[in-house]
Specification:
Blueprint lengths: L1 H23 L10 E3 L6 E7 L6 E7 L1 H22 L12
Helix pairs in contact: 1-2
Length: about 100
């Protein structure tokens, strides 16, 4: 029974993290805006910049593993809070019933 509860919490955490990341994604236009991803903290930022001296363009990627970890922990805590708030009840069929 405990194994199913852990699997349910894990699946809910992955779904919630995916939902927040997908809806926080902001695709920037080339040369004008940043592409960002992450909620509540932005863990990925991509942009394009131009070197003033050479005139060449370069892509800049800024990834923060710590912010990604905090976003995942936030999702875990939110799922646990939602489960406690609504006290989800579910039943697992016994093997003998089949």
């Amino acid at each position: 029974m405990k194994k199913y509860r852990i699997l349910l919490w894990g699946a809910a955490t992955v779904l919630l993290f995916t939902f927040f990341t997908a809806f926080s994604y902001r695709g920037g236009m080339p040369y004008t805006d940043d592409t960002t991803m992450g909620f509540p903290l932005i863990f990925l930022r991509k942009s394009v910049g131009q070197n003033v001296e050479t005139g060449l363009f370069a892509e800049i990627k800024d990834f923060h593993f710590g912010y990604l970890f905090i976003d995942i922990v936030f999702s875990v805590l939110l799922v646990l809070g939602l489960f406690k708030l609504f006290r989800f009840k579910y039943t697992v069929p016994d093997e003998e019933d089949n």
